[in-house]
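Supplementary notes for students who missed Thursday's class. We covered one full example, reproduced here. Read the sequence, then the structure, then the short commentary at the end.
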Amino acid sequence: MRYRRFGRTGWEVSEIGYGLWGMGGWTGSDDEESLRALDRALASGCNFFDTAWAYGGGKSEQLLGQAIRKRGRTRVRPLVIATKIPPKNMRWPGRAEYPVSDTYPPAHIREYTEKSLANLGVDTIDLQQFHVWSDSWASDEAWQRAVDDLKRDGLIRAFGISVNRWEATNVLKALESGLVDSVQVVYNVFDQAPEDELFPYCQQHDIAIIARVPFDEGSLTGTLSADSKWPEGDFRNLYFNKEHLTATLAHVDRLRPLVPDGMDLPELALRFILEHPAVSTTIPGMRRPRHVERNLAASDGSRLPPRLADALKAHRWDRVPNATP
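Structure (token representation):
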């Protein structure tokens, strides 16, 4: 496992982190298998874990806390635990028409930080994040004071924002506050827009980047088909509606010829992300030990051949915000 500096926090984090949404919010998850996967990641040197209260109403936080208590946090590189506060109105994504008093009022920020602390079984959260965002809220002093208070009171060590899908620049005003230590953004072979403005800004100001959705909710694993369906209530039924699934499969088919011999599509997807120096860590969702082993193996320091890296740039797919969930 290789490690990267997490912006101005100075933390050394595994460049392949762990996303916990699947084990808390997707159908087909098994808690015991999830715990085995977490244990495998901890044993293999993964030290960055990203969860959220919204992943099962605290369920994934509780699973992570259980896994950590079994292994302990003390190691050569300390564990970094990141979670997220849901908006008070529980509506995704964040929109400018929602007043900040309905999304992140101070009492709500404190309440859900305390809930996450209890779920995780820790005294301090390393990285607390807002789970949705609109830059229309950036100048509000109430959330800024609330975040400062969390840091001053020792409840969190750093603060970040998770930005809306396909809205990579809808956070730049918030970054000007100087309070934001990290940005979590969708970045993968298809979603390359963060490279345009967000990545350069964060590099200039030493703000960490968490690349989420490295497999485009599963399309870049190469396992989807025109007949793919999920149980009722699963997010993927919304994301991969018929029109979007058809378009996605066409993009995946055009990408397949670039996968080198001895490599599969998920490995290529991860290695593409790790090519960018602005990325501090990427957080594939992993619910099974074999997923952990496969994904963490991509952190071996090997670079993509320059011609392949350049060819992948041509697979950028600029989608319209809110065109699909």
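Commentary. The first helix runs from residue 21 to 25. The two ends are 34 Å apart (CA to CA). If anything here is unclear, bring it to office hours.
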